[in-house]
Amino acid sequence: MSVVIIGGHDRMVCQYKKICKEHNCKAKVFTQMSGNLSTKIGSPDLIILFTNTVSHKMVHCAITEAEKCNAEVVRCHTSSGNALNEILNTAVGF
Description:
Layout: E1 2-6, H1 13-22, E2 26-30, H2 37-41, E3 46-50, H3 56-69, E4 72-76, H4 81-93
């Protein structure tokens, strides 16, 4: 399963990737808005939006890309490792 995480904290990127790897997921993490974010997202199975630490522009870009590739979108207000674990447990079914 491929996962894209939008938002979160810069210092947590390695932990986000480690948690995804534990759930047998490939992860891309974008904590900052880049000019070509829409091309970097690709076509994941799941897009996770950490809404507390993300700009409206990034949310709009992620939602647009999710509609193009029929990806599931999960919004979470907190950007902790525990929150990511819970989302992946629900989505992957561990």
